[in-house]
């Protein structure tokens, strides 16, 4: 069997039960160190516990791209900077493995076991494989297949998030939590109220992971309401503030700035009283004050959640 290790067909033959091969890990290590190609290797159910595929002294890691590692035993494996792009790690056992700086783009990570694994600086996809395929199916009109893929994507994002949180990698965990919630939303009926509400929460705060969204929404609302006050007019004592074509550019610009100031005061519910709404400005001010109080409370929750991690 040792001679078969050097044959390309042995490694790429899915019919060969790799569980029955002794010394498989050592043979794979030797092949990597000799610089031989390791693309499309069929290693389903392979016993590779403790394998060392670290390119010691090299600037780049070894490449094991497009491999099938379904249910492979990779416990305590040393996979620093290993290029696994396009590989299937579905239900692979990577407990206590070192995946530091590994490249896991385009990988199938459904059901992967990562308890105690080192996960810092891994190169992840912005969207996991199942999510991308699900969106392709949705564009092709196959909503049933798309929902199934979105379910798998949600499960995978949740699994990765939990392990990243355990490893203290909260920034990446937060990104995966956001994708998890997006996948859950895409499984809801397209025109349902629940899906709309979920989309609004995502837009405002990124499901609690994007405080900048809250700030941008606040600035946008203040600006829009300020322009509306400028168009419909507000009062400052006995003087009316608003758009007036008969007045000069500088006077209109000054009134616009005063309206923006009033919008800030209304949004923050300070209510100084130096400028007051009139006519159509009143319902606008009431709406802005209501949304503003809610938005500031939301920002505090999101900001504290991010800072306490």
Automatic annotation (TrEMBL):
The cross-references to Gene3D superfamilies, in alphabetical order and at most eight, read:
1.10.287.70, E3 ubiquitin-protein ligase SopA (2.160.20.80)
Supply the Pfam families for this chain: Ion_trans_2, Pentapeptide
Q: Which domain of life is it from?
A: Bacteria
Q: Where are the transmembrane segments?
A: 212-232, 253-272, 284-304
Recite the UniProt keywords alphabetically: Membrane, Transmembrane, Transmembrane helix
Matching InterPro entries: 5peptide_repeat, K_chnl_dom, Pentapeptide-BTB/POZ_domain
Q: Which residues form the Potassium channel domain?
A: 246-308
Name of the protein in its database record: Pentapeptide repeat-containing protein
């Amino acid at each position: 069997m040792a001679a078969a290790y050097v044959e390309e067909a042995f490694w790429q033959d899915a019919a060969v039960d790799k569980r029955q091969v002794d010394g498989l890990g050592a043979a794979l290590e030797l092949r990597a160190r000799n610089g031989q190609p390791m693309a499309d290797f069929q290693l389903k159910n392979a016993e590779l516990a403790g394998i060392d595929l670290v390119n010691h002294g090299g600037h780049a890691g070894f490449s094991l791209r497009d491999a099938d590692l379904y249910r492979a035993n990779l416990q305590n494996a040393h996979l620093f900077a290993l290029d696994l792009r396009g590989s299937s790690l579905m239900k692979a056992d990577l407990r206590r493995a070192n995946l530091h700086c590994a490249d896991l783009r385009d990988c199938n990570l459904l059901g992967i076991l990562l308890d105690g694994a080192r996960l810092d600086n891994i190169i992840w996809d912005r969207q996991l494989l199942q999510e991308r395929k699900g969106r392709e199916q949705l564009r092709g009109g196959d909503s049933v297949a798309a929902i199934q893929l979105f379910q798998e994507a949600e499960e995978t994002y949740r699994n990765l998030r939990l392990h990243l949180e355990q490893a203290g990698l909260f920034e990446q965990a937060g990104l995966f939590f956001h994708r998890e919630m997006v996948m859950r939303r895409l499984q809801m009926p397209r025109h349902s109220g629940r899906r709309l509400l979920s989309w609004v929460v995502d837009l405002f705060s990124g499901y609690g992971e994007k405080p900048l969204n809250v700030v941008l929404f606040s600035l946008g609302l203040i600006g829009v309401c300020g322009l509306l006050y400028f168009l419909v007019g507000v009062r400052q004592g006995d003087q009316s503030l608003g758009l007036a074509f008969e007045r000069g550019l500088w006077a209109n610009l000054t009134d616009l700035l005063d309206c923006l100031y009033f919008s800030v005061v209304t949004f923050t519910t300070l209510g100084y009283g130096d400028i007051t709404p009139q006519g159509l400005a009143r319902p606008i001010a009431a709406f802005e004050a209501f949304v503003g109080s809610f938005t500031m409370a939301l920002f505090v929750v999101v900001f504290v959640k991010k800072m306490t991690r």
